[in-house]
Each structure stands twice: as structure tokens, then as C-alpha cells.
């Protein structure tokens, strides 16, 4: 049905001994997808996408997206003309347009002075530039692991161990 060599002349058949760049492949290292050339991908201002977008490279969105965008190891930029009703998960998220949805940044989230976000943000670092519009909540845990230990002491037999055994100060005998 499709002639890969005509439509995608850079594509190689699976199992060949050459990579996209022409270097020899020894069969032990993993090969990147022949369709990913790195750099930035762009969704133009007249493009409308409904559904899920998964990107293996940086992504610039100037159009309309309804659904989800996932680029966990890359940057997603919502340009000034970008209009999203979508949840975004990326390493870095920069919003210059309009987003209705939750944003999760692995490193940071930046809302530019032209940006407008209606939704929740979860990232270790969040920047709201002067003039940015934001309505929602921000969750920031820069160094805290997902399963952090609670600082509260355990209660044993209905009594909290507030004064550990061997403490030099006087202990209260209240019961």
C-alpha cells in the first residue's frame, strides 16, 4: 500500500546494519527511530489536533490542541497563538498562549507575560512572569521524593514517644 522508500527515503528497514546517519550498527546498542531527527517539531497556527500527542523532541504549539501532550524528556512551548484544552506533561513547559488543563513539568514551568493558564501546575520550579494570568493551584516539591517519610513520631500503645529514652531533660509524667 505504501512505498516507504518513496515517501520516507531516509527510512531503513528493521534489522539492517546501518543507522539513519549511515554509521555501522553492531546489533547491541539501541537504534533511534528513523523518523526522529531531533530538533523541534511545530504545530502551526492553522492546525487543529484532537487526541493524544506524544513527542520525542521539543515541541512548539501555535495551533489548537484538544487532548493531551506528553514529552517527558523534552520542552513544550505554547506559542502566543496557541490555544489548548489539554493536559501537558514535559520536562520544561513554557506558556505564551492559552492553556486550559493541568501542567506537569519535570524541571520547570514558565508562564510568560502573554500566557494564560486555567488549571493546576505540578513542577519543582514555577515562574510567573509579570503580566501572566493564572488560575488554579501550584504544587512544588523541588527535592522531595515521592514517598517521603513523615516527620511525625509513631504512636505506640496510645502514647506518643515525645521524649525518647535517655534524654537528659526532665520528662513529663502526664497520663
Structure description:
- With 175 residues, the chain is mainly β.
- The chain is 2% helix and 42% strand.
- The protein contains one helix and 14 strands; from the N terminus they run αββββββββββββββ.
- The strands form two sheets. Strands 1, 2, 3, 4, 5, 6, 7, 8, 9, 10, 11 and 12 form a twelve-stranded parallel sheet that branches.
- A hairpin with a 2-residue loop joins strand 13 (155-156) and strand 14.
- Residues 3-36 and 145-156 have low confidence and may be disordered.
Helical content band: under 10%
Shape descriptor reads globular
Count of extended strands? 14
Distance between the first and last residues' Cα: 82 Å
Structural class: mainly beta
Segments where pLDDT lies below 50 for 5+ residues? 3-36, 145-156
Strand content: 35-45%
Residue-averaged pLDDT, rounded?
75
- Oligomeric state as shown: single chain
What's the Cα radius of gyration? 25 Å
Task: Encode the helix/strand succession as letters.
Answer: HEEEEEEEEEEEEEE
Number of helices: 1
The main β sheet shows up as: 12 strands, parallel
Amino acid at each position: 500500500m505504501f512505498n516507504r522508500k518513496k515517501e520516507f527515503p531516509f527510512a531503513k528497514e528493521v534489522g539492517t546494519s546501518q543507522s539513519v546517519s549511515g554509521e555501522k550498527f553492531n546489533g547491541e546498542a539501541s537504534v533511534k527511530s528513523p523518523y526522529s531527527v531531533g530538533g523541534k517539531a511545530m504545530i502551526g497556527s492553522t492546525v487543529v489536533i484532537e487526541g493524544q500527542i506524544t513527542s520525542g523532541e521539543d515541541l512548539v504549539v501555535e495551533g489548537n490542541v484538544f487532548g493531551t501532550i506528553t514529552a517527558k524528556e523534552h520542552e513544550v512551548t505554547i506559542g502566543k497563538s496557541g490555544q489548548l484544552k489539554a493536559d501537558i506533561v514535559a520536562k520544561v513547559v513554557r506558556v505564551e498562549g492559552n492553556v486550559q488543563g493541568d501542567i506537569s513539568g519535570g524541571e520547570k514551568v514558565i508562564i510568560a507575560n502573554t500566557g494564560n493558564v486555567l488549571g493546576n501546575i505540578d513542577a519543582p520550579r514555577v515562574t510567573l512572569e509579570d503580566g501572566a494570568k493564572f488560575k488554579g493551584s501550584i504544587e512544588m516539591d523541588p527535592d522531595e521524593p515521592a514517598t517521603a517519610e513523615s516527620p511525625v513520631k509513631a504512636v505506640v500503645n496510645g502514647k506518643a514517644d515525645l521524649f525518647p529514652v535517655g534524654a537528659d531533660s526532665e520528662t513529663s509524667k502526664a497520663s
